[in-house]
Amino acid sequence: MAHNILIIVAIFSTFTAATAGRLITTTNSSSDIVNDGVHGGYGGVLRLNPFLFSSSSTEESGICEQSYGFLPCTTTVFGNLFLILVYGYLMFIAATYLSAGSELMLEILGPGIVGGLFLPVLGALPDAMLILVSGLSGSPETAQEQVSVGMGLLAGSTVMLLTVIWGTCIIVGKCDLQNSIAIDNQDTKGFNLIGSGVSTDIWTSYSAMIMAVSLLPFIVVQFPQIMHSTSGRHVAVLIGLIVTICLLIAYCVYQVYQPNIQKRRIAFAKHKHVRSRILNYLKTNAYEGLLDDKGHPNREVLFRLFNSVDVNGDKHLSQAELRALVVGMQLNDINLNEDDAVLKVMKEFDTSGNDEIDFEEFVSGITKWIDEAKSTILASHVSGPDTTNYFHDYYEETKREHYLLGDEGGDHDEENGVKDPQWTTIKALLFLLLGTIVAALFADPLVDAVGGFSSATNIPSFFISFIVLPIATNSSESVSAIIFASRKKQRSASLTFSELYGSATMNNLLCLSVFLGLVYVRGLTWDFTSEVLVIVIVCIVMGVFGSLRTTFPLWTCFIAFVLYPFSLVLVYILDYWYGWS
Fold first, then answer.
1. Distance (Å, rounded) from C-alpha 72 to C-alpha 188?
2. Locate the EF-hand domain: which residues (predicted)?
């Protein structure tokens, strides 16, 4: 942190010196005359070096406008390129500070509000600030020209995360695939397009679905253009803004309560797996068949199994005897809390409420489980009323369901806690404060530098902001995602891709709400059909792709990679061949 602060101070000092050290001449060959205070503007004069202020930022005066009145500016190509690199690096530092502060707050306060609300908002803060300042300054006409920088950033961030970064995470996180599931920390097949890949949990698929749904505001605000109507565009922007804010609130609420939902789902999956394991155990030990000729539970076989569990022979199964059964089945693969599993089985079987299970309750409970297994498996491979093949199918299904929920057990990290909560809190707040200040201070100069580079090179500012700015504002989370994916585990892959989908969702909601609010308040024109089309295509393709499957072979990364240049070419063709913008 101290090293980065020194870098910021050094850059800031260099900028300040640059604004005071302008090159001057005493020749009278230029019109850039500055009164020297002695000759009244005649004879001896001071002149700005015309080479440094040589282009089209302000075509009439030939002089650029300094941000905040003291930060340097230029109209030359390489000068603006240098400013973009410097200001972009400062935005990268801001994003890094915000990310570090958010992670520290997560360690202190846990998921809930912090993980569901603060982290997504802070992660999108640099992008939101750049979008905001792109249309705040100057007249509405100037803002209309600069707001394309904000749209370029919005589209570029989403597209980069879902294409380049997504595909890279597939490559660095690939493991060997076995039965369509990636084996943790096993990567022996090299770059096998089908035999290696990445597996995620079902919650990652939900994140992809939510990302696809977050496109709704784009469709709402684009509706007048879809209907080829020139009226009602301002109203459509307002409606789109309201829809975006509502979806943003709903998404944050979901993120807040999602950990609790996930825990309940995992607990239920574990209980189903216990049921399937007990049925499989009973089937294995029922040598004469668990079902009779009519497909009903065989009471004689169940009675012998009941007695084998009833160790003390009192014709009732106690919690201790049930626990011995559960422990004997060795359910270590699902990180089972054995006492909790026993209580749930007891509660489900014990209809009399006496904390014991008699034989009739045992038969009734087993019958209910068998019926559930039959209804879950639609068709067994072997027909016949007495077949119990579906027990194995039911067991495999519950095992896979538990795997897809991503429970690797253990909340060891949470149990360790934070060693010094007070200092960690102060450190987190300092990171967040410094990151916010740096992002707020240098967002406007970065937008001005992009505009200056666009004017000097005649390259549309949209393409500059689409390609360059997302690298600065999303580099921290991109590098973090790639490093996390390289751990080659299902859990780390799930968190990585959930983060990518979540970042795209926040772009579609938080950043878009800022953009729409800016357009509505300043009375700007919404005319970004091609840009919206690119966002919609990429999010739908990757959203549907991510929601329909949990395993991604290596070949899927090429789909993501191709979408990036496709997006650039599509915008160029639609804007400059068909004039959609």
1. 54
2. 297-332, 337-372
